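Sequence, please.
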């Protein structure tokens, strides 16, 4: 069985006593991971995002809310963040903003980010299944023009944060997928949503994925700090 409780304990310990911040994005990486963790505990995709200004100050933060009350497919962390920003910070120039997010943005969020005028995106974990950052070729001309002035790259952060960001998503992937399919079939009652968080007995703790089962036990070294 996966060391599910150990996994949660391990992450909680990283938040309690994080490695010293040595790299430029470590602080934002940690905050993104904490937001992701909270979203997971609420039964949503564990993804967190923050928007930071040119003085390296936090402007706003958000987490995935896709299963908040009922299934809302657009409520990815980046979308929530940009909703908040455009509503409450409409008078702020976009040029010096950086969007940090725990997971590589998807197609939908990448489009939204390009349209938002934000020109720098830094993510932690790559998303080989749905990430769009490495697929921004062949865009229609207007979007290609926006993409040409936008840099999307990985954060300069301790590997431990990338590991947490990626493992949170991997661990919940099966459960999330099942919930989405249920929603598509009209079978996801509002009351079901709260049962799928990290603390529930269903879903994440079930350990149905081989990848999930082996992730911590086989590769303890990957969790260590670099250097
Ligand atoms: Zn997205």
């Amino acid at each position: 069985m996966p060391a599910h409780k150990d996994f949660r304990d391990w992450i909680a310990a990283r938040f309690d006593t994080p490695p010293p911040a040595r790299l430029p994005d470590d602080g934002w990486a940690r905050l993104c991971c904490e937001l992701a963790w909270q979203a997971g505990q609420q039964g949503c995709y564990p993804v967190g995002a923050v928007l930071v200004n040119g003085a390296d100050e936090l402007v706003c933060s958000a987490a995935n809310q896709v299963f908040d009350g009922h299934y809302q497919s657009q409520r990815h962390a980046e979308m929530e963040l940009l909703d908040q920003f455009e509503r409450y910070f409409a008078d702020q120039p976009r040029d010096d903003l950086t969007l940090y997010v725990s997971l590589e943005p998807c197609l939908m969020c990448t489009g939204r980010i390009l349209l938002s005028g934000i020109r720098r995106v830094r993510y932690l974990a790559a998303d080989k299944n749905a990430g769009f950052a490495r697929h921004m070729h062949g865009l229609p001309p207007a979007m290609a023009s926006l993409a040409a002035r936008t840099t999307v790259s990985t954060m300069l952060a301790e590997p431990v944060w990338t590991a947490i960001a990626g493992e949170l998503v991997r661990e919940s992937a099966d459960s999330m997928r099942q919930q989405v399919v249920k929603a598509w079939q009209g079978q996801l009652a509002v009351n079901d949503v709260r049962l799928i968080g990290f603390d529930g007995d269903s879903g994440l703790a079930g350990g149905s994925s081989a990848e999930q089962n082996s992730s911590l036990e086989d590769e303890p070294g990957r969790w260590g700090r670099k250097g």
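Residues 159-184 form the longest helix (26 residues).
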